[in-house]
TrEMBL record:
This is Beta-carotene hydroxylase. Keywords: Carotenoid biosynthesis, Membrane, Oxidoreductase, Transmembrane, Transmembrane helix. The lineage of its organism: Bacteria, Pseudomonadati, Bacteroidota, Flavobacteriia, Flavobacteriales. It comes from Polaribacter aestuariivivens. GO terms for biological process: carotene metabolic process; xanthophyll biosynthetic process. The chain crosses the membrane at residues 51-68, 74-92. InterPro entries: BETA-OHASE-like (IPR045019). Belongs to the sterol desaturase family.
């Protein structure tokens, strides 16, 4: 049970880590990698921004390794929490919001509509500065209210 709680806690914590990374790294010194993500359309299958998956994948893989081959089993479950968040991020951000993969095109879910709205507000600003809505899975209530969803 403790390992399930560790995994869940890390998953939830990753939203804050993502927010901080997005605001201060991607819209900061890492803008040269993130900039193409703010350009309209996707002319290629991959974009430079996709390199950021490595920022989270490498520590997750290292935690799997050290959690498996040392007495510190809890490290495996920290890595699992990071991996689960990464999968959720991919499904929500790349599949549902940006439709980079046409798997779930016609969803009418209230949460997903609010999430899309918040992300559109983020992408409204094409530049590095003055953006908002840096998180991914936790949507500010105002985006539900704006659509009269709650």
């Amino acid at each position: 049970m403790i390992y399930a709680l560790i995994t869940l806690a890390v998953f939830l914590t990753m939203e804050g880590v993502t927010w901080l990374t997005h605001k201060y790294v991607m819209h900061g010194f890492g803008w040269f990698l993130h900039e193409d993500h703010h350009e309209p359309g996707y002319p290629h299958v991959f974009e430079k921004n996709d390199a950021f998956f490595i920022v989270f994948a490498v520590p997750s893989m290292a935690l799997f390794y050290f959690g498996t081959y040392t007495a510190h089993t809890y490290l495996f479950f920290i890595g699992l929490g990071i991996l689960c968040y990464g999968i959720a991020y991919f499904l929500v951000h790349d599949v549902l919001i940006h439709q980079r993969f046409k798997w779930f095109k016609n969803t009418n879910n209230k949460y997903l509509k609010a999430l899309r709205k918040a992300h559109k507000v983020h992408h409204k600003n094409m530049g590095k500065e003055d953006s908002q809505c840096f998180g991914m899975l936790f949507v500010p209530l105002k985006y539900f209210r704006e659509q009269k969803l709650i």
